[in-house]
Design goal:
The protein is mainly alpha-helical. The protein contains 13 helices and two strands, in the order αββαααααααααααα. A two-stranded antiparallel ribbon has the order 1-2. It is found in: Membrane.
């Protein structure tokens, strides 16, 4: 096209000599301008036709790792809340704060008058009247700070979920599926706080027909612990799934059986940890402090003392301790079977390591549980045993994350 135009110009106002192409003086500037304009138009056209560089999609592998680390960090904060809640329970501190305010109670009493006013409120409830009627103000401050610390940690957990969710949402780090998950996790954190206060209220109620020491309902305690464990499992599973690259495992029959075995074992670990809430709620660890027998018998006489029979599984301390023993033995047996089954298979190194850690922790947890029982439930050992249940659950989730299906 450019050559044709030049020929037209030459035929209309140029002459060819031995020295080359010569232009008339009037036409020389106009031809130069035309060539410049033509060149600029060609450059612009080529620039428009060139494909634009591909934009980096969000979310991507890098943002997934960031979100994964955040969720794993949140699950660690949930562990702290569970352990601190267990210590609060073991020190009988959970009923020291008789009110619940989202913001007002974030600042503990400062002056002597404020402490005395808080102590007077505590004195109006059954735990002081029946169990702690000779408690001093100094002793009250200890149990108050235990419960206050547990509640403040719960608020920290809530902020750790909600604030980064807002930030990552605005940055576009979540796909549609992840948006639903994080909204569910944030909603569950709020529900967990309300459930905690609902549990505490059960220990503040007057029960004239009962001669037992004041304590929270074991049903509400189990619901509070169970919801915390669910929050922990969901956060850790999602975080590990985003952080760890999936293992491309062959879909053999043996692998399918191993996956099912692992899921069943993980469910058993969760159920055993949850049964510990009934043991704690009923102080069932103080009923029979011997092992492997319960007293002089394998099956105590008072296992079926309550009527109807089903009530024994949730309200009879003897039956509750027996159930926890059976679940613990069943769990370590299942984990041992999983370990032996996995040894015969060719698995990635990380999966082998996860199963080995799970097995080692299972036997450690059994040793902690038996020691806690034989030593009449000392607070440090009991808290370590409770923390061990979370460690065992952590390794179970790790195993499931390593064995998960990966889309091709």
């Amino acid at each position: 096209m450019l050559l044709t135009s030049l020929r037209t110009v030459v035929s209309s106002g140029c002459r060819i000599t031995g020295k080359g192409l010569q232009l008339n003086n009037a036409q020389r500037p106009s031809l130069r301008q035309w060539v410049v304009r033509r060149g600029k138009a060609t450059i612009v056209a080529e620039a428009r036709a060139a494909p634009a560089p591909a934009a980096v999609s969000v979310p991507n592998a890098a943002t997934n790792r960031v979100v994964g680390r955040w969720l794993v960090g949140c699950s660690g904060l949930v562990v702290g809340a569970v352990v601190l809640g267990g210590v609060t329970r073991l020190t009988e501190s959970g009923l020291s704060m008789v009110d619940w305010h989202l913001v007002k109670e974030m600042k503990p009493p400062q002056t002597q008058a404020e402490w005395e006013a808080e102590f007077q409120k505590y004195q109006q409830f059954p735990e002081f009247k029946i169990l702690n009627h000779d408690m001093t103000l100094t002793e009250f401050k200890f149990i108050f700070y235990m419960e206050w610390g547990h509640r403040m940690w719960g608020r920290l957990v809530g902020l750790a979920y909600i604030l980064p969710t807002v930030y990552f949402w605005k940055k576009g780090y979540f796909n549609r599926s992840m948006k639903g998950r994080v909204l569910g996790l944030c909603g569950f954190v709020c529900f967990q706080g309300l459930l905690g206060w609902y549990m505490v209220k059960s220990g503040l109620e007057e029960k004239p027909e009962s001669y037992d020491i004041p304590r929270v309902s074991q049903y509400r305690l189990a619901a509070h612990l169970g919801s915390a464990l669910l929050l922990y499992c969901a956060s850790l599973w999602t975080g590990l799934s985003l952080m760890l690259p999936g293992n491309k495992l062959p879909n053999t029959r043996q692998l399918m059986l191993l996956r099912r075995f692992a899921y069943g074992t993980g469910g058993l670990v969760f159920l055993t940890a949850l049964s510990g809430a009934f043991v704690a709620g009923l102080d069932a660890g103080l009923v029979y402090n011997s092992f492997p027998k319960m007293g002089e018998r394998w099956l105590p006489d008072d296992m079926w003392a309550f009527s109807p029979t089903l009530k024994n599984f949730f309200e009879n301390p003897t039956t509750v301790q027996f159930d926890h023993r059976i679940l613990g033995i069943s769990t370590v047996s299942a984990i041992t079977g999983l370990f032996l089954f996995a040894r015969k298979m060719r698995l990635p190194r990380r999966a082998k390591l996860a199963i080995g850690c799970l097995t080692a922790m299972a036997y450690t947890q059994v040793g902690l549980g038996i020691s806690t029982l034989l030593m009449y439930v000392p607070t440090p050992l009991a808290a370590t045993h409770q923390s061990g249940s979370l460690a065992l659950l952590t390794f179970a989730i790790w195993v499931l994350a390593e064995l998960r299906r990966v889309a091709k």
